[in-house]
Design a protein that fits this description.
Mean pLDDT is about 80; it is low at about 1-15. This protein starts with 14 loop residues before the first strand and ends in a 5-residue tail after the last helix. Helix content is about 45%, strand content about 15%. It is of the alpha/beta class. α5 (about 155-170) runs parallel beside α8, α7 (about 200-210) runs parallel beside α8 and α9 packs antiparallel against α10. The protein contains 10 helices and 8 strands. It is elongated and about 85 Å long. Strands 1-4-3-2-5-7-6-8 form an 8-stranded mixed sheet, with helices on both faces. β3 (about 65-70), α2 and β4 (about 85-90) form a beta-alpha-beta unit.
Length: about 325
């Protein structure tokens, strides 16, 4: 069911402050990539990260453009970025990691887009390997390894549970659910713009969206460095990630959620029914279990049909 409400067009908040000439890629159009770097108060790290990227890319055959999206920084991030030949998109207020990425991807001129953080945690040296493998996949993700990936003990159970749940729902093992270093097909990403959030859950959502739509995804191990500055992800975000995983999978593959849920109540009802037969006293509990199972399955089938219609029958 859709609801209509009056909307006003938001003001254009990004400003293209520097333009880099489009590389000549007529002879080899596949060797052109747009590198998107979202940045929020990264004055102490972005200059070094840009130097690393430029140094790495200069040793490859790839033509490239670097798009820095300043997401309302209040420090010297913009000044540090403008020391380099980049396309700078400025937003006067902080709108979120996902919003910055979507703005950057919208301005990208290459068919392949690579996203990487400005804080220096993701190795620019891994970019050539990811680009090389991207010829065979719709998305290549840098799976984080190394000592600096250590997760506090209090957060490990939640992190493990979210990864296992996402892998089960996506029907594919996911070693890194929200890595911020990945190469993607631009048109494939834009196909999911309507569901991509503005916050840190952008990468989680695009991961699940690709898997749920049978797009080819490859994970490549990368070293993960200690970040410069303070992490912007809060412990309470685990709850929001859980809701996000469930919403995304219900949107793309609702039967993956509703079938086992209905089976749970069906088994409970069957167990109670068998027990009641032995004691010679049939109760309403068994009937309620069966009824709950059939209602959940019916909702799942209806959701699946709605999902197929909404996605144009691509599932």
């Amino acid at each position: 069911m859709s609801r209509s409400r009056k909307k006003t067009s938001p003001p254009e908040i990004e400003v293209l402050t520097r333009e880099v000439p489009l590389p000549d890629t007529e002879n080899n159009s596949e060797k052109f990539v747009s590198i998107i770097i979202p940045a929020y108060n990264e004055e102490g790290a972005i200059d070094n990260q840009l130097k690393r990227i430029e140094n790495v890319m200069s040793k490859t055959e790839w033509k490239y453009e670097i798009i820095v999206v300043d997401d309302g920084s209040r420090d010297g991030t913009v000044q540090e970025a403008l020391k380099h030949d980049v396309i700078l998109l400025q937003q006067p207020e902080n709108r979120g990691y996902g919003a910055a990425l979507k703005k950057g991807i919208s301005h990208a001129r290459a068919e392949k887009v690579l996203i990487i953080d400005a804080d220096g945690t993701y190795p620019a040296e891994a970019i050539p390997d990811l680009l090389e493998k991207s010829a065979h996949y719709d998305m290549v993700v840098g799976a984080r390894v190394g000592d600096n990936v250590e997760i506090p003990w209090a957060r490990r159970p939640a992190k493990w549970f979210l990864r296992k749940l996402a892998s089960y729902l996506a029907e594919y093992p996911i070693p890194d659910l929200n890595s911020g270093l990945r190469v993607m097909n631009k048109e494939a990403v834009k196909h999911f713009y309507h569901i991509l959030p503005s916050g840190f859950s952008f990468t989680t959502t695009i991961t699940l969206a690709f898997f749920s739509n049978d797009l080819l995804v490859h994970y490549h191990p990368i070293e993960y460095a200690k970040r410069i500055g303070k992490s912007k992800i809060k412990p309470t975000d685990a709850y929001h990630f859980l809701l996000l995983i469930l919403r995304t999978i219900v949107f793309f593959n609702p039967l993956r959620v509703f079938l086992p849920m209905g089976m749970f109540f069906f088994v409970l009802g069957m167990g109670k029914f068998i027990y009641d037969l032995f004691i010679g006293n049939l109760s309403e509990t068994a009937v309620m279990g069966f009824l709950a199972a059939f209602i959940i399955w019916a909702i799942g089938l209806l959701s699946d049909q709605i999902s197929r219609v909404g996605l144009g029958g691509k599932q």
